[in-house]
Design a protein that fits this description.
single chain, about 450 residues, alpha/beta, 9-stranded mixed β-sheet, 13 strands, globular, disordered N terminus
Length: about 450
Amino acid sequence: MQYTILPRPNIVYIHSHDTGRYISPYGHAIPTPNLQRLAEQGALFRRAYCAAPTCSPSRAALLTGQSPHSAGMLGLANRGFRPRDFRQHIIHTLQASGYTAALAGIQHLNPAWRANAASEVGYDRVLSDQYSQAHTAAVDFLNSQPAEPFWLTVGFFETHREFPLENDIDPAYVLPPTPLPDRPAVRQDMANFIAMAQTLDEKIGQVLGALDESGLRENTLVIYTTDHGLAFPGMKCNLTDHGIGVALIIQGAGLFAGGRVVDAMVSHIDIFPTICDLLDIEAPGWLQGASMLPLLRGEVDSIRDEIFAEVSYHAAYEPKRAVRSARYKYIRRYDKRQTPVLSNIDDGFTKSELLAAGFNERPPAPEQLYDTWLDPVERDNLIDNAAYASALADMRARLDRWMRETDDPLLQGDVPAPPDSFVNSPEAASPNESTQPTQTGNTS
């Protein structure tokens, strides 16, 4: 269905936790019919990437249009981290153009325990800051015939762990995520993920249905994405495509309609400048992304030669940076650890299975180079392969340049956590273990 969007469309930004690209529009046998229908009506971005495979830094990058370290968001809001300046959040730019900003569910940029956390971010209306009420609060808002134009954030907890253990998914017929072994425990873990993905899709369907029933759909841009990859080992909190590859579906405008499929690389940080371009408003000077509209108009084949991603803190300190070109991926660690940071891996059946097989005895590589055309699973580290020396030098130089241009604090050494935050020890076996007083994680 083709919609004609007025000069100031409403914008509904729907985000989920830890979903990666594991929904049916990306070819997975995971029943998500509402997201499938949204993709068939809109534009599906096959090669979209987050700027950080960890929850709050990823959202901060999308919503401020810059790298997490540029936004000052180096760790998780639920552990006391906050962006440097909430005025860089996209809602403030939209409010200056007459928009009202409303929140239903998770915002995940400001610690929830702070008084008026969502209002402090800048939302005009907090419909509900409880994740379990996100869809019902959004539906009620849309059915109330709100004044237009508006920005509505709908933040879902799904598909974050813990997964439901009681469901109707038969693990015998489930395919585990790409980087993981086909073992009974992993299949059961994935079956439980699928059950939660179905719940997510049902709730999103209610929000989209309210847009239709209220008559708002024709003048609304719907953006669906997630923060990063699945909460499985080797995915979330990792800089391979298993961690930074994300679903991105945008539906509503003429350029974002008709079941379009976009194969060019895009980053979450490109969404903010795209909205500015679409609305014909001045883009703030801090934006580091590029508008996707020339790509959608067919004026260019790509809008970027590379994307960048980073981790500083998740549950624990694990500093690393990455650059991805159309073909190559380069990852650099900034610690000297000889074992994985297990507290940055969510507990579950799969983690237990891998630990029993000796996962904790495999030292992380200080540097990694992958040829993603010949090795899309990113298993064959080419860092010492002389045939790739030129590609390695190029990718190292790209990462170094970006870190300098964005004034990455990691260039000055270990990055301290803010004084009111709390983190796990990198030696901890689980993110659920007791946290330690704020300090930079042990990098020895």
